[in-house]
Amino acid sequence: MTLQQLEYILAVNQFRHFAKAAEYCRVTQPTLSAMIQKLEEELDTKIFDRSQQPVCPTPIGSHIIEQAQNVLVQANRIKNIIEEEKHSLTGTFKLGILPTIAPTCCPASSPN
């Protein structure tokens, strides 16, 4: 099971059409279908009922889709944590204060 496969099932659920979902995901329809079929084989269950148009999730497929949404949200949080860490300030911060104003700004620095 990959994050990409989970993204594909969410796209099919959103568009209720394999070709439109494939276009949205920027892959060919056979690629999208094959990846979803591979996931269904791995899970040993059908996620979508393909016998009707528009396609709709099976009862167990609805639960799988809900969980896939949660997994992708968590995966995006990991990416956000990394981005925040890359953009956070690190290192030592030094502040210089003129000796003439230091006693008024920082009483602890007054001479004894």
Q: What topology does this entry show?
A:
Elements: H1 3-15, H2 18-25, H3 29-43, E1 48-49, E2 56-57, H4 59-87, H5 102-105
Antiparallel strand pairs: 1-2
Helix pairs in contact: 1-2, 1-3, 1-4, 2-3
Radius of gyration: 27 Å
* Number of DSSP E strands: 2
Low-pLDDT stretches: none
- Structural class of the secondary elements? mainly alpha
> What is the overall shape?
rod-shaped
| Elements, N to C (H/E) | HHHEEHH
Provide the residue-averaged pLDDT: 90
Largest β-sheet summary: 2 strands, antiparallel
**Given the structure, what is the number of helices?**
5
DSSP helix fraction = 55-70%
* Residue fraction in strands: under 5%
Terminal CA distance: 69 Å
Strand order of the largest sheet: 1-2
Plain-language structure description:
- This protein is mainly alpha-helical and 112 residues long.
- It is 62% helix and 4% strand.
- Helix 1 (3-15) crosses helix 3 and helix 1 (3-15) crosses helix 4 (59-87).
